[in-house]
Every structure is written in structure tokens, then in C-alpha cells.
Amino acid sequence: AGMNGTAIENFVCVIFNVSFMNCTWHVGRTASEDTQYFLYWRTSKEEDYTGCQNYIKDNCGRHTGCRFQNVTIENKRAYFLVNGSRSGQNIQSSEKTIWLYKIEKLTPPLNVTVNCTEASHVCEMWWQPPRTSHVKRPICFKYQVAIENK
């Protein structure tokens, strides 16, 4: 239902700093300035949708994203629904399913320590894995070290 071209486009979510999630989208091609969008999400098809409490808005005041706090990733899927209205008329809704662990941007490794000995021309490095809410085994991480000689 709803007029063609009014549904959102380019829906993207990113989880960062372990438990914060931003979801953003572009307004539909034929959406007028009075079109308003509403985001709902849930992590199970058995639970009720939860509406966004902290919208990101464009210059026209239209919702173009949402900020979430205290998101628990685990190995859950999330189900997103964006619908809306325009002058009392329904617009096309949009649904998307996302595996939350796939959209997490990891923090850098923690407590990086470097110890170099000039006599043997050897450097040793240590670090702790990045913070994450869903990876329980440090062996799951792969690292890349770039060494520059200055």
C-alpha cells in the first residue's frame, strides 16, 4: 500500500562502542516535504516492535535515522520496519532483517604496549582484544600490524 517511490531507500545500521546503534535511510524519491517516517524494530518475531525514541532529522524535519543505546548483539537477528504518512495518506513501508553481529564496527585493540630493544633490534607488542558484546573467545580476532621505520 502507498504511493510508489515513497518508501525509504538505502537503509543501513551500524553498531559501535559495543552497545550504540545508528540506523539511517534516505527519503523516498517521490516523498514530499510533509512525509514523515517511523522506525520500529524487534529481535524476535514473537515480541512486539519497539519504536525509535531518538530520531535523526533532515532540514525538513523528516526522520532520516534513529539512535539507539544499550543494544545487545549476542547472535541475534533484528527485524526493522519503517512506515509513515504524508498528509494523512499512507506511504510504502519497508522491512529489513539484519544479523546484528555483522554490522558491528569493532573498537581498536586495548592497552597496546610496545617494547623495543635497540641492541637486538627487536620489538615486542602486546594488546587486549577490542570490546564487544558477542565475541567470547579472543582467538576469533585477527590482527594486522603496520610497522613504519621513522
What does this 3D model show about the protein?
- This protein has a domain at 9-102: Immunoglobulin-like, CATH 2.60.40.
- The chain is 0% helix and 46% strand.
- The protein contains no helices and twelve strands.
- It has strands at residues 9-16, 20-26, 35-42, 50-51, 55-57, 63-68, 77-86, 89-90, 94-99, 104-105, 110-117, 122-128.
- The strands form three sheets. Strands 5-6-2-1-10 form a five-stranded mixed beta sheet, with no helix packed on it. Strands 3, 4, 7, 8 and 9 form a five-stranded antiparallel beta sheet that branches.
- A hairpin with a 2-residue loop joins strand 7 (77-86) and strand 8.
- The radius of gyration is 21 Å and the shape is elongated.
- Its main location: membrane.
Q: How is the main sheet built?
A: 5 strands, mixed
Broad CATH class of the domain at 9-102: Mainly Beta
For this structure, what is the CATH homologous superfamily of the domain at 9-102?
A: Immunoglobulins
Strand order across the biggest sheet? 5-6-2-1-10
Helix content: under 10%
Q: Which structural class matches the secondary elements?
A: mainly beta
Q: Identify the CATH architecture of the domain at 9-102.
A: Sandwich
- Find the count of extended strands (DSSP E, 2+ residues): 12
- Output the CATH topology of the domain at 9-102: Immunoglobulin-like
Radius of gyration using CA atoms only: 21 Å
Mean pLDDT: 89
Low-confidence stretches: none
Shape: elongated
In terms of DSSP E residues, the strand content is over 45%
Distance between the termini: 62 Å
The H-and-E topology, N to C, reads as EEEEEEEEEEEE
Helix segment tally? 0
